[in-house]
Amino acid sequence: NLASALREFIKPKPVFVHVGKCGGSSCHKRLDQINFRYVNIHIRPIPFYSIPNPRRKFYILIRNPMARAVSAFNWRRKLVLIDQVQRSRFPGEYEVLDKYHSLNEFAENLCDDKGLLCSDVVAEFNKIHHLRERISFYFADFDILKYKNNISGVLMQESLADDFHRVFKHPLDNQKEKLNFRPNDDILSDLARRNLTRLLEDDFAVIEQLWRIGAISDQRYENAMSEQLFS
Helices marked H in the chain — which ranges? Predict the structure, then answer.
């Protein structure tokens, strides 16, 4: 009704942009404990209707795109191929995960000898949940530079406890994100990293924009932009 719409305009709920495979479950549990009311954006782009209100605050959870890709691939492989509890959830996902035994193998096939992305392999990549919904997917309709004054905090998975405390003024406590499944072959070759960097360039661009508006510190930016995964 009109009254609720007016209240929402005067004091809109903040938006928590939970990019998948970045530690969001821990954040949600803790935000609920401290009675922080918010709109959760997960596995969907930031909706256009939430943007224009100049009073709305955005909190963004992201991660190094390369490390996120490794995490997503390994976790989906466990659920779909090994445990088979989600074997039929997304069409074609099982077949792709059965074809490529590691993200390294997958990534090494992303580009041809000239360094150009292979459309058929990219199409296979996009059949995998969370790899299809990349960081840039969430910001398809969100102009970071235009709405920079609405961004109240950015949390990085690599420094989640410190960032949560800094942004929300509460400790994350002992909440722990469930550990992602990591086989022994989670290291990427130089070729795999180059190919993935090419494919994920829009993700890196999002992080660079957040850094340029001062939402990410220089050190956080360097970590997030690194092609080295587990240094």
Answer: 2-10, 24-33, 65-76, 93-99, 103-108, 119-125, 135-138, 160-168, 190-199, 201-212, 218-225
User: Tens of pLDDT along 67-92?
Assistant: 999 999 999 999 999 999 999 999 99
In the predicted structure, residue 50 carries a pLDDT above the cut 80: no
Judge residue 73's burial from the number of C-beta atoms within 10 Å of its C-beta, 0-12 exposed, 13-18 middle, 19 or more buried. buried
CB environment 105-127: b (16+ within 10 A), e (fewer): ebbbbbbeeeeeeeeebeebbeb
Burial class of residue 132 in the structure, from the number of CB atoms within 10 Å of its CB (0-12 exposed, 13-18 middle, 19+ buried): middle
Q: Cβ neighbours of residue 61 under 8 Å, at least 6 residues apart?
A: 16, 17, 18, 19, 22, 23, 24, 27, 154, 155, 157
SS3 (DSSP) at 117 = strand
Side-chain-side CA neighbours of 228 within 13 Å: the count stands at 4
178 — pLDDT class (breaks 50, 70, 90): very low
Cβ-contact 167, 59 below 8 angstroms = yes
Gap between the Cα atoms of 53 and 41, Å rounded? 17
Dist CA 198 CA 183 (whole Å): 24
Give the pLDDT score at 212: 96
* 29/18 Cα distance (integer angstroms): 13
* Residues in the chain, overall count: 231
User: In this structure, what token pair is assigned to residue 85?
Assistant: 């509890």
The reported pTM is: 0.89
